[in-house]
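TL;DR need structure tokens for one chain.
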Amino acid sequence: MAQNIHKHAQETGILDGSISCAPVADAIGSSSLLSPPSESSPNRSSSLGSGSMDAESPTEYFDAMMNNELVSHSVDEQHKLNKFLFTVDQRLVAGKTNTEDLIAQLNQEIAIKESLSLKNGKNPVKSESACPDGDNESLLQELDNKTKQLMDLQKRQDELETKSKSDIRVLDKEVRFLRSIQEKLKDDLNQYLEEKSELERILQKEKQRRREIVLARKKLISACKDLLHRLQESSVNFLEEGEDKFNVNPSSLSDALGLLTTSDTRISLLLAKAQLLAKDGYGVSGVDEINSITDDDEMASDDEIRKLLSDIIADNTTLRKQINSVVRCALKTTVNPLKDGSVEAPPRKSFLSIFWRK
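>> reply
TL;DR here they are.
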């Protein structure tokens, strides 16, 4: 390879001083010996010869792609991508620096060799005695080593660029996958929000219905309490406490009959109200009244219902006992005259007979 480079130098005029240092560097940068053709980087040889990189680097391409693709990407994923991009940039900068250093050293070696060639052209005899073939061979060997280093760096740079492009493609696929997942998650979230809103509406309606039920129950309990209280006030008791006999004097019989008539009238009115209450029920009057209902009111209404039912059962028990006492008293009034004689005595006019006619 050193002989090929030496021959190429003689053909291009490096050794005889026909060209300058800068064109030599350009010739080396564009030569096929230093930079073999590649499909992935057709313009790399000219850029290395001049000591500069391409105008558009993988970093700029990656930034342009990420500006379009990662609009809605999360902060954590963007941090990871930026970290990876920073690492790739460091690798590219290091490769570029090493390449530029080698190119500078190579240009320096070529300049030295050119100056030696000029001196040999002016003083051929002296040059032949001062610069033997061993020095030329060492220079060519050193030039060959620098060329190998340059090619290794170019190969390494190609590998880094290939790896960076591969990583970019992988990241591109990952970004597209994450965007598709994000769209699906957005759809699921919207569906869940709609279901949540629907459940909240149903729950609100159920709460409204329960408040209406509690309010109607409270009104019903209040009306039942009022009817029970008025019924107890309308009741008349002419029985002795603990005895099966009446405590009405014959002289006050007309007053007792008037009390019974008044009680019957009140009881009839209360019965009509009770039937109307069972038929119509109680509706809800206003929104403010409904919103004022709380859970404590619901528990209190349950307690009031239990107490009201207990009072009704107790009152019915008392009425049953009074009916039993009246029946016993009537039986005694009917049986006692039969015991006095063998002939059945005609029934007597008494308060009880008047009561039964009523």
